[in-house]
Backbone:
């Protein structure tokens, strides 16, 4: 092919040719080879629908949350490769649901869970209490506790550093040690982002989209179920809706709104409403009790009856 | 270093210029010299130096470890057990809180005027200094006063009562030795008092706290009494207030976790009217409710003072009665058992009490 000389094509000048020659690239063939390598590394290749379906069947797992009502709402559990969001006002039980799910995954399913805590609400004592109600065996409790890994970050830049680090080597290191990572929880995403949005700040949206992008890439590349929590705001009619605005609403695939039940006899009852889902009709409501997370499982015979009784608010 | 350039903590204008010049990943920048970076990206010399300095600090081993270090829940459990909690001298409240106010978390105390928030804060500032051999933390306290309600004479009374209480409990020689050093003067000298007059001073003080805590590692309690006052009067832009408060809350929880201190914030109450009914709710807005890790609401019920644990990561909701005496914050005499309740501020003479009250029916 053509020897590289000045003026062969726009963009090639003397300096450029000298730099290429020092790397031993003298003809156009080498440049075309470089271009091919770059294309192979960075482009997305088209995949047929059948292959995609096969890949989905083989790689997606559904993680049960441990609570039958919540599982029904989420179409049998948390799907890997997707972001699920829990929104609720203060004290509605978002962190408690995250703890329960983490304990279920680490104890029942025996998989590793990463928990990113941005509010200081992670309380290992509570995890131990939950494990103690599931099994009296100390060793099993300790083993389950060791499978839950906690990361504490308090501002959005540290969160991004943490997520990027997980994506590049953290997750691989954790799965090498035994027990694959199947879930990542971020509690909560709104605590670090809400102080950056609004007003005259122009960086907030960019950071929000970066966090969303990182979480989606982690979910897809490593086949992990991502669970995030969010705060609530009131819309024009006074109804509750999840915070962080329209842009964030496209990031999670499934969104659940948690609410307290006013005037209930026990203070630990909650309702969960499905506000966005690609698999089920929206506005499904399920009630559940935070205290008795998986009590239905113990009585397997009368399980169905108990579930119906508990669903009544 | 796998950081992308958009995620670095730099000024937005600098980041735009760096991205336009073709730098996508932080590792592209590490081998650059300031003058080279200046020419290629079109930023000023100072900005280039700042960028490289930030990258070098970020690449330090201890910084990287902080972002990537993950504790297992088991390690966290051991850490929590080692941290301990601050007793309040009201045994019912201590039981409801699981031993006392937890160190390493932020607790918010809300209440109507006169119900006892400042009394509880002053009691905690004294209780944090109880020596380790008596079951306390033996630490110092930092009291940030924004309302001007800190009264030294009252703290002196509480300190004296605490010393007397410890004197009655002292059994072995170690405790007696610690008791000799525990005097009212020493207790008062271990409380650092800061007076902030408006929100700018409060934000500046919180910004300076990490340095203060590094110089005084024995501080175990920070009280901000109250956080509502400087933000409630004469703040026009409410969305800016929400943003400032959220940022403040994150800074405080970061301090609490990194320096192992308990942070106590006091909040006021406001009235919310909905459907023709009015009820008392904590001030500073809905989103502030997410800020503190634990929320304690103090309220009146007739002549009784009640404290309700409204939000907590590890304890069940509970309502207990307390009283304020000459000695400070103490248990109420007739009802020492905690009674669970649904919602603290839903209705004043609620239908959530387990036993009938004759005086309410009349």
Residues:
């Amino acid at each position: 092919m053509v020897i590289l000389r000045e003026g062969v094509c726009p963009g090639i000048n003397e300096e450029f040719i000298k730099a290429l020659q020092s790397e031993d690239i003298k003809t156009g063939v080498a440049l075309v080879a470089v271009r091919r390598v770059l294309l192979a590394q960075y482009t997305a290749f088209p995949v047929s629908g059948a292959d995609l379906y096969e890949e989905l069947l083989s790689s997606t797992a559904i993680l049960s949350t441990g609570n039958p009502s919540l599982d029904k709402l989420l179409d049998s559990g948390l799907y890997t490769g997707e972001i699920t969001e829990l929104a609720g006002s203060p004290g509605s039980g978002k962190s408690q649901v995250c703890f329960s799910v983490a304990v279920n995954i680490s104890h029942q399913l025996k998989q590793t869970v990463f928990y990113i805590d941005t509010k200081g609400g992670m309380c290992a004592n509570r995890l131990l209490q939950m494990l103690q109600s599931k099994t009296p065996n100390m060793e099993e409790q300790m083993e389950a506790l060791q499978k839950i890994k906690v990361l504490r970050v308090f501002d959005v830049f540290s969160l991004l550093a943490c997520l990027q680090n997980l994506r590049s080597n953290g997750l691989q290191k954790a799965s090498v040690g035994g027990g694959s990572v199947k879930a990542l929880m971020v509690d909560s995403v709104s605590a670090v982002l809400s102080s950056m949005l609004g007003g005259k700040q122009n960086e907030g949206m960019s950071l929000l989209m970066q966090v969303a992008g990182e979480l989606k890439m982690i979910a897809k590349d490593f086949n992990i179920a991502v669970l995030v929590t969010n705060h609530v705001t009131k819309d024009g009619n006074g109804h509750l809706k999840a915070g962080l605005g329209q842009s964030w609403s496209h990031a999670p695939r499934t969104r659940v709104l948690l609410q307290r039940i006013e005037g209930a006899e026990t203070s630990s009852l909650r309702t969960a409403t499905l506000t966005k889902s690609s698999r089920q009709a929206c506005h499904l409501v399920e009630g559940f009790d935070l205290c008795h997370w998986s009590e239905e499982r113990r009585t397997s015979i009368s399980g169905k009856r108990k579930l119906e009784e508990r669903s009544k608010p | 270093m796998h950081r992308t350039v958009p995620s670095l903590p730099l000024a937005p204008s600098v980041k735009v210029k760096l991205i336009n010049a073709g730098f996508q990943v932080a590792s592209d920048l590490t081998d650059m010299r300031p003058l080279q970076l200046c020419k290629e990206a079109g930023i000023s010399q100072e900005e280039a130096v700042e960028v490289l300095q930030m990258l070098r600090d970020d690449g330090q081993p201890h910084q990287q470890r902080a972002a990537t270090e993950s504790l297992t829940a088991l390690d966290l459990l051991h850490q929590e057990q080692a941290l301990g909690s601050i007793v309040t001298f009201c045994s019912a409240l201590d039981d409801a809180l699981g031993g006392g106010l937890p160190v390493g978390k932020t607790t918010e105390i809300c209440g109507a005027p006169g119900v006892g928030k400042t009394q509880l804060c002053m009691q905690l500032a004294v209780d944090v200094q109880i020596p380790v051999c008596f079951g306390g933390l033996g630490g110092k306290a930092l009291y940030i006063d924004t309302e001007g309600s800190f009264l030294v004479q009252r703290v002196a009374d509480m300190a004296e009562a605490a010393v007397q209480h410890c004197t009655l409990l002292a059994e072995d020689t170690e405790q007696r030795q610690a008791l000799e050093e525990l005097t009212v003067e020493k207790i008062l000298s271990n409380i650092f008092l800061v007076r902030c007059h408006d929100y700018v001073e409060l934000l500046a003080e919180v910004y300076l706290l990490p340095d203060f805590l590094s110089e005084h590692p024995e501080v175990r309690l920070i009280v901000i009494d109250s956080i509502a006052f400087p933000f409630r009067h004469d703040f026009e832009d409410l969305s800016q207030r929400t943003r400032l408060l959220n940022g403040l809350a994150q800074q405080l929880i970061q301090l609490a976790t990194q320096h192992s201190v308990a942070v106590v914030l006091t909040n006021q109450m406001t009235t919310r009217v909905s459907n023709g009914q009015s009820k008392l709710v904590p001030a500073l807005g809905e989103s502030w409710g997410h800020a503190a890790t634990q929320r304690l609401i103090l309220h009146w019920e007739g002549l009784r003072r009640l404290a309700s644990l409204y939000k907590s990561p590890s304890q069940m909701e509970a309502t207990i009665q307390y009283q304020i005496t000459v000695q400070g914050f103490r248990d109420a005499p007739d009802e020492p058992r905690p009674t669970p309740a649904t919602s603290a501020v839903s209705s004043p003479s609620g239908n959530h009490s387990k036993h009938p009250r004759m005086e309410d029916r009349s």
About this structure: The two ends of chain B are 72 Å apart (CA to CA). DSSP finds 15 helices and 14 strands in chain B. Residues 103 and 262 of chain B are 4 Å apart (CA to CA).
